[in-house]
Amino acid sequence: MTTFTNIPKQIEEAIEKWQGTTSRRDFLKNSGMFVVSFSAAAMSTASLLGPAASAQNSPPTPVAGPYPDPDFRKLDSWIVIHEDSTATFYVGKTDGGQGTGTGFRQLMADELDIAFDKTNLIMGATDITVDQGGSGGSDAIETDGWPARRVAAEARRVLLEMASARLGVPVDQLAVSDGVITVKANPSMKVTYGELIGGKRFNVTLTGNNINATTGVAKLKPVGDLKIVGQSPQRYDIPAKVDGSLKWAVDAKAPGMVHARNVRPSVAGAQLISIDESSVRGIPGFIKVVSKGNYVAVVCEREEQAIRAARQLKVNWQKPATPSFPTSENLFDYMRNAKPTSVVQSRTQTPDVMGDPDAALASAAKVIEAEYDFPFQGHTALGPAHAMADPSNGQMTIWSNDMKAYGLRTGVAEFLGMPRDSVRVIWQEGPQLYGRTAADDAGFEAAYLAKEIGRPVRVQWMRHEETAWDAKGPAFTFKLRGGLDAQGNVVALEYLARTADYNHIGYNEPDTVLIAQLMGRRPKEPAPGGASPPSEMYVIPNRRRTTEVVGMPLVWESPLRVANLRDPNGPQITFAGESFIDEMAVAAKVDPLEFRLRLLTASTVDDEDFLRARSIAVVKAAAAAYGWDTRPSPKPVGTGKILSGRGIAYCYRSQTVVAEIAEVEVNRETGHIWVKRLVCAHDCGLIVNPEAVRRTIEGNLLHGLSRTLYEEVQFDTEKVTSVDWITHPTLRHSDTPAQVDVVLVNGDPNPNRPDLPPYGAGEAAIKPTAAAVANAIYDATGVRLRRVPFRDKRVLAALKVARV
Amino acid sequence: MSNISLKVNGRSYTVDIDPATPLLYILRNDLGLQGPRFGCGLGQCGACTVIIKGAAVRSCITPTSTVKGSEITTLEGLAQQDGRLHPVQQAWIDEQVPQCGFCQNGQIMTAKALLDRNPDPTDAEIREGMDRTLCRCMTYYRIQAAIRRAAKLIATGPVSGKEVGA
Predict the structure, then answer these.
(1) CB B74 within 8 A of CB B35
(2) Which of A241, A247, A732 sits opposite B104 (nearest CB)?
(3) Higher-confidence position of A525 and A513
(4) Based on the domain organization, do B96 and B72 belong to the same domain?
């Protein structure tokens, strides 16, 4: 029997011994409103731990539904202690492979006073884990870790009270270590967590107006008392990922399951005229062509049959009368010249003005101006979007890797017109969860098709479909103007950002996903868009910051639909902002690192999290780790084939501060860029698992490098033309830097607290990479690249124009 | 449809399929071997890699009829008989390589085949040998470190597998 689980193999094996009859869901229900008489014996470890998995571990039929939400105000919804004094935690997050789950286990184990190895964690199954929204915004540890810690602390408090009653000793005379409570004065008097509550419910009600505020009455431990936080236990998810035993969302199977493939419009905005079903009826295993509006899919018994049928199906499409978008080559001209439409203008942020930028620019000794372009970039997940949905028992169970499993559940229920409690999503691991990929689209599609066919349906997109039609990070064009006084001080900075078509951004609403839009179901008007200004703490007395949104001619059913891609507009705005700071440093003939430090240290005013002080510390840490040589850029251009240089960029994201230094080699004969070394200094406050953070940062750096050097969605006026790994290249092994140094900057400048709280580390380090590389290329060659990506051909052309 | 005999991870199977069906779908859907995964169907990314006759092969573009009778190894078959992980797998854990991990089947299988034919590769040989195996979490830096570590494990025998590489 195929099993489905996102928990480690060894725990799965333990579970298999116990196939209890009381499901985790029933356990929760019973611990809530229903008063059910349970004997301790009946609530064995088996019936708690076992069924926790059975929801994920077996074909979907045994748990018949409905699937009401676990109550976040019940301690039992978060923590189960087993008779062997191990604990299972249930959290409403998902893990994209950054070690989020391991981090939660560390945070919760520390507060509960139990060894890390004696804990287990279930994430993202909507019927057995509380709704913390899944992943997004790098906020898992930063935001959702707090209620998780508090409930664990509350569990510890309750266990101490139980021990006090059992041992007849006041709580303040008890000590806890690794799930064993002892009497301080007489350590032979002790009781374990398992003996106190193993297999039984806490029956403790928590408080809090919303899930983030969930709390008991216990106080959290001071940071100095945390023992597991700050250590680097290995990620529990990795062994099953390297021995082939992990069951991913892509592996989901159910009895009677069939396979579907989508058939997309021939060009964007095309209308379906007719389908010739006879073109596929002879294919073995063919079941049905499903279509509604412009949505078309084929369903077959076997996967390869569905792939063949999707290729072979004859569909008559009518192209739209007018072009759907400019070509990717003309995109930035289009964006500069297009007036934001009335709809778009209402979304334009109010210019953020400080001082008198016009007067300051008019009187500046030197004014410089530059424009920067950043293309649409796709998620282009390595595994195309997929999901499996089972309509058994009039319910709908969806196996999905959508980072927002909870939103998917609600959205699908609305889309299908089903009661919310009839739908559940079982999140399982999947490829690359760096924002709103097409995973949600596939989840909706599988559920729709399952309802139509009446059998479990697995759908997966093809490569060309994923690369062309997945959600895109928004394109940007920028115009910056800066004024310097006679001493080279920055007196004014004007920033204008224009982003393209930010209006599809969606979080599983039943009208923002592709299938809904193809069926003609769409929002009344585009979502409000906008863009951020660069995030830096530079002291510049006169500023104007404006952001605008321009739309594409084709608003809906578009492959250029924009959604969050890792740090949604950070790489774009930081590319412009930090390239321009470099350009001003060049104009001032000042070393670019020294120039930034001057701008940072011109004030001592700080925010409550000491962002300025921490920015200065991070920039200095990067310089020290790299061994920065102070001199203005560019350096004298060498005579050899390879030109080398270094560049720096700095920014923050939320409260996480990052400075990166790139060392590049530019091949003047081919235009090829090799980033030989990357240094990243990174301050994300309290670090839960340093080694996991390091690797997350490394991934960010190289993901940033891929987006800097290669990634660009290309399109003609009717369709996306970059559709595979040849036409849409990505970073490869041969591009890997020879050396990557990550410096985790620690230490809280605030003397009034023991340590910084944790801030997100999932995205900040992708933000400054493009700018650091561009600045390094300038240092090496004296050529300023203002349009991402820096593929060989474009670099070579720029070098030739500059006669380098 | 026709009967085709396959030898996978030391076991024999007979499947009744369209012989042109890419091996990937047979492994995943008929034999329950889901280590190899669909990434592109074009032989461009490597997520579907299996080892046949010592070579890393892209199963998404390999017609099943062309490998009948050949010994096929998937990720599930890499560990030794006693359950001990292959040194490449152990090195992957020691280095804590994966982020999402979806591509790592291809990375591990390609690295295994690389080390089988070149037990002591230079950095340049690792880059070249792995270059067509893509990772969208961009864990290349750690993968390359893990390959160097695996080469040492193979040469010197297993060392402590618990420490995390810095």
Answers:
(1) yes
(2) A241
(3) A513
(4) no
Q: Is A435 left (phi over 0), alpha (psi -120 to 50) or beta?
A: left
Whether B79 sits inside 8 A of A243 (CB atoms) is: yes
pLDDT score for A21: 32
CB A288, CB A301: distance < 8 Å = no
Crossing angle between the packed helical segments B123-130 and B140-156, to the nearest 10 degrees:
120
A2·B32 Cβ contact <8 A? yes
- In the three-class reduction of DSSP (H, G, I as helix; E, B as strand; rest coil), residue A192 is classed as strand
Q: What is the pLDDT of residues A709-757, one digit of tens each?
A: 999 999 999 999 999 999 999 999 999 999 999 999 987 777 777 678 9
Contact A307 B41 (CB under 8 A): yes
Indicate if B59 and B7 belong to the same structural domain: yes
Q: Are residues B26 and B71 in the same domain?
A: yes
Least CB-CB distance to A242: which of B18, B93, B139?
B93
Q: Same domain, yes or no, for B104 and B148?
A: yes
For position A351, what pLDDT does the model report? 65
Task: Check pLDDT > 90 for residue A39.
Answer: no
Percent of chain A with pLDDT over 90: 82
Q: Which residue of A has its CA nearest to B37?
A: A383
A61-90 b/e with 16+ CB inside 10 Å = b? bebebbbbbbbbbbbbbbbbbbbbbbbbbb
When CB atoms are compared, the residue of A235, A432, A701 closest to B136 is A432
B-chain CB neighbours of A737 within 8 Å are: 141
Domain that holds residue B34: 2-77
CB B80 within 8 A of CB B87: no
- A chain contacts of residue B145, beta-carbon cutoff 8 Å: none
Could you read off the pLDDT of A51-76 as tens digits, one per residue?
333 333 333 334 688 999 999 999 99
Asked if the structure places residue B163 within a domain, the reply is no
| CB spacing of B96 vs A433 below 8 angstroms | no
Note the pTM of the prediction, 2 decimals: 0.93
Distance of alpha carbon A463 from alpha carbon A380, whole angstroms:
8
Give A89's DSSP letter.
E
CATH number of the domain residue B129 falls in: 1.10.150.120
Q: Residue B52 is part of a domain; what is its CATH number?
A: 3.10.20.30
- With 50 as the cut, is the pLDDT of residue A670 above it? yes
List domains and CATH numbers for chain A: 9-240 (3.30.365.10), 250-320+394-460 (3.90.1170.50), 331-378+471-570 (3.30.365.10), 581-801 (3.30.365.10)
ipTM: 0.95
Whose tokens are 């507060």? That residue is A111
Of A4, A100, A106, A242, which to mutate for an interface test with B (greatest number of B Cβ within 10 Å)? A242
* Domain end marker among B44, B77, B110: B77
Q: Please answer yes or no on whether B41 and A462 come within 8 Å at the CB atom.
A: yes
